[in-house]
Amino acid sequence: MSTLPPPISDQPVLKLSNVESAYGPIKAIRGVSLQVRRGEIATVLGSNGAGKTTILKTISGIIDPRKGSVEFKGQDITARDPAHIVQEGLSHVPEGREVFPLLSVHDNLLMGAFTRSDRDGVAKDIATVYGYFPILKERATQDAGLLSGGQQQMLAISRALMADPDLILLDEPSLGLSPKLTKEIFEIVVRINRERGTTILLVEQNANMALNASDYGYVLENGRIVMEDTCANLREKDDIKEFYLGMKEDGVRGERRWKKKKTWR
Ligand SMILES: Nc1ncnc2c1ncn2[C@@H]1O[C@H](COP(=O)(O)OP(=O)(O)OP(=O)(O)O)[C@@H](O)[C@H]1O
Ligand SMILES: [Mg+2]
């Protein structure tokens, strides 16, 4: 890619402080604090049930936290209405895409732009997303429910972009996709970040893809952040290599020693 990445500012665009969310008696996240700086791709890595989706739902107002606060662009958005949060410039691509199956691809894109009144800007952004994902242009008039899983993921990302957001929350874009398609989608996500300067918070089980695409990473286990660092540093850590990247150094026993030695409050 020839474009230079936009500068990452020190100013956090998103800040979670001690956020706790639960489903009835089940505490899904337990005091999560994290920041996403303007212009970066940040990632939260974690295995099944770690609480990744819950973090994103809490940010976008789908779940109200029991404790803690969420700040977006310096404003407290804790437990605000999801529609208000979208209006403020935060788009969420949910786990499992959730496109409108009976609407055409084109109409799905227009739904993403419901907060906007600049018709020229909307038309320009539709052209831009068709540039990122040419298959969506070919299928523009087809019902979205007829697209393949990967194409639906492309549409879900594109629909989020249509709101012209400052921040996109991306929930496991690799879910159910082939390695090749996952790679293609991640390349576009990086392009969106570099070309438009859109800040992205990505949650993934696919640590390899996420660490390569992102600038800064958090590791989530059982609802708590247990590690954070630049992705360049995380990629070099033995624990990450062993447990998330599936690379075992010679001499390291096949036990989950890192988890075992941790004690939680
Ligand atoms: N609607 C719900 N009702 C009750 N418990 C839930 C609900 N949704 C999630 N949980 C529980 O909350 C915890 C965190 O779930 P969450 O979906 O946030 O995990 P995740 O990291 O996104 O997992 P995955 O990688 O499988 O998507 C899990 O223990 C899960 O069983
Ligand atoms: Mg999830």
From TrEMBL:
Pfam families: ABC_tran (PF00005). GO terms for molecular function: ATP binding. Keywords: Amino-acid transport, ATP-binding, Cell membrane, Membrane, Nucleotide-binding, Transport. It comes from the Bacteria. The keyword Lyase does not apply. Residues 14-247 form the ABC transporter domain. InterPro entries: AAA+_ATPase, ABC_branched_ATPase_LivF/BraG, ABC_transporter-like_ATP-bd, ABC_transporter-like_CS, BCAA_Transport_ATP-bd_LivF, P-loop_NTPase. Transmembrane segments: none annotated. The keyword Electron transport does not apply. Belongs to the ABC transporter superfamily. This is ABC transporter ATP-binding protein. It comes from Rhodoferax potami.
